[in-house]
Amino acid sequence: MNSINKFWMDFCQKHHVNPGELEGAYAFGGNSQDADVLSDLINRGIKTATTSVYDPDEDVPTVGQYAIVLNGENKPVCVIRNKTVEIMPFKNVSAEHAYLEGEGDRSYDYWRKIHEKFFAWECRENLNTIFSENTEVVCETFEKVD
């Protein structure tokens, strides 16, 4: 059993959770340095939201599902549980959501600048599309469970 599976099974036992409620295990951000910073913000309860480009070929996260947050070395840091999931055009993401993402100075301007750059790269490199204000994104809020 690898460390991620063991982490999840220990969590399920401790919290009386069905192991099938795991959405997945993933690192936030585009590289290991981002993953370390963002997993730390989540673990400390500062980051309670995330936004990603909507990919119609992938499953949309579900309210109530659990996920394991990984650091830059793909080691489990904590478990989160989705509270809300919404799909909307990038231009409609609120300042409140940007603040909940917990990054930088937590301002909407900071959030927008960082995410426009990252989403433009992601659309070009991974989705073979061009990012715009109307690109649909998935906005999630979550709580750290353990």
Automatic annotation (TrEMBL):
The record's SUPFAM superfamilies line, in alphabetical order, gives: PUA domain-like
The superkingdom listed in its UniProt entry is Bacteria
Q: Name the Gene3D superfamilies for this protein.
A: Sulfate adenylyltransferase
Residues forming the ASCH domain are: 26-146
Q: Which Pfam families match?
A: ASCH
Q: Known PANTHER family for this protein?
A: CYTOPLASMIC PROTEIN (PTHR39203:SF1), CYTOPLASMIC PROTEIN-RELATED (PTHR39203)
Put simply, this protein is called RNA-binding protein
